[in-house]
Amino acid sequence: MNLIEGHIAIEPPQGATIWDVDPYDADILRAPEDYYTALREKGPFVFIPRYAILAVGRYEETRQVFSDHENFVSSRGVGLNDFKHEKPWRAPSIILEKDPPEHTRARKAMARALSPKAISVLKDDFRASAERMVDALIAKGTFEAVTELAEAFPTDVFPRALGMTENDPRRLVDYGAMVFNTLGPDNELRRNMLAKAPDIVPWITAACAREKLTSDGLGSIVYAAADAGEITQDEAGMLVRSFLSAGVDTTVTGIGNALWCFARNPDQFDALRADPKMARLAFDEVLRYTSPVHTFLRTAGSDTELAGVKIAEGTKVACALGAANLDPEKWEDPERFRIDRRPIGHLAFGAGIHGCVGQNLARAELEALLGVLAEKVARIELVGEPVWRPNNAIHALDRMPMRFVKA
Amino acid sequence: MTKITYIAAVGGQSTVEARDGDSVMSTAIAHDIDGITGECGGSMMCATCHCYVDEAWMEAVGPRQDGEEDMLESATCEVKTNSRLSCQIKVTAALDGLIVHLPESQT
Known about the structure:
Structural class of chain A: alpha+beta
CATH class of chain B: Alpha Beta
Distance between the termini of chain B: 31 Å
Order of helices and strands of chain B: EEHEHHEE
Largest sheet of chain B: 5 strands, mixed
Strand content of chain B: 15-25%
Number of strands of chain B: 5
Strand content of chain A: 5-15%
Number of helices of chain B: 3
Largest sheet of chain A: 6 strands, mixed
Helix content of chain A: 40-55%
CATH superfamily of chain B: Beta-grasp domain
Shape of chain A: globular
Distance between the termini of chain A: 64 Å
Number of domains of chain B: 1
Oligomer: heterodimer
Number of strands of chain A: 15
Strand order of the largest sheet of chain B: 2-1-5-3-4
Helix content of chain B: 10-25%
Structural class of chain B: alpha+beta
């Protein structure tokens, strides 16, 4: 069998447009909008020869692939590697990289720990932390928004929420970036991040142990599911690891992207200031508009067909969530950032049984932070050109010099 | 086409045509039904698509999905025996005429 990037090198299927593009090219990863547009325009499924994969970017088909966990499985990896044919770099996640029925068990325990009810008790702490940070940054004047706010806020509140007794903000942020970069091809981004694994992974693994967690954080709810016999103790540790891989870098990205949106659309920040209760809904529009997770893959578990294209077993399908979230067939004026849009059904958190299990935590963090900004800040100003950081799965800022004008 | 009727807590009702395979939640969103929020988009993570299935339709709709019980605990309004997350009710021809009652609030 001929493998490319650890998966079956399929032939171009009939009905799919062939496009010789590298979606993992650093320039495309920094500014993906033109790639998104071309991907949508070329057809429902595009065959990309250099990786022998299908890519999908129209809203309807992307949603269908993402919602159909029976035909498009996650257990063979959500990156380019097919776990059926190549050993993954780490033990697969028991929630992200599994199908039912194993997935269902893990998901249930995780969903309980991250339910709106479980998260609601954290709101006061999130708000207090946001107030402290925003006050300090207003007083400081010019600051670096990625490190001093987008990274600083989640790495302050998240370890406390989880009940971690040791914190290492740098490793927490880098672990997420590493996991997401490994979803791409064997490129420089992936190799550079994997080189950091010997430093980061042992620390992460140790941090997930039960004795390193308090008895009143979200992590303890996961371990309680193990005590109840729903999952094993080892699985509980694996799920706490999932908190760390999926819960930090993504929120860091969401905050950076939100600040970027509001700095470039002052009228929308004015609208938020006029009604700070819009914060939660505004975050959904940030997600639609900037799609922090730009691409996840699925694998065809058996021969199937969608939009008239025959998809062979073993085909890797790259779902460009960022493209679907800007599809003019689905969204009116998709290029406009509008906080009153109410973009229910956007795919930034995925869809279906694998839809982001941590979304309530992300929403609570952003609701607190955007709410505080709306009250304390009159204007969010860029004081230099923002720079995007290429990552094989995440669309995040690298640097963004910024200033908050006091309200 | 399958018809679904949504009855608001304050009175008033809407009957809409649903596509088979969609959920009772996504059908409500597509038709701008007030009273269903569906914040998470159908991943059973938010409990803002809570509805009460009309007693006459309980059997046809079937039991709650695995994990649904847990998430219903986060619902804002009272959870009753006929409470469901409408994202977990898939529209089929067998549900033609389905009636669901909406709670006073979802958040």
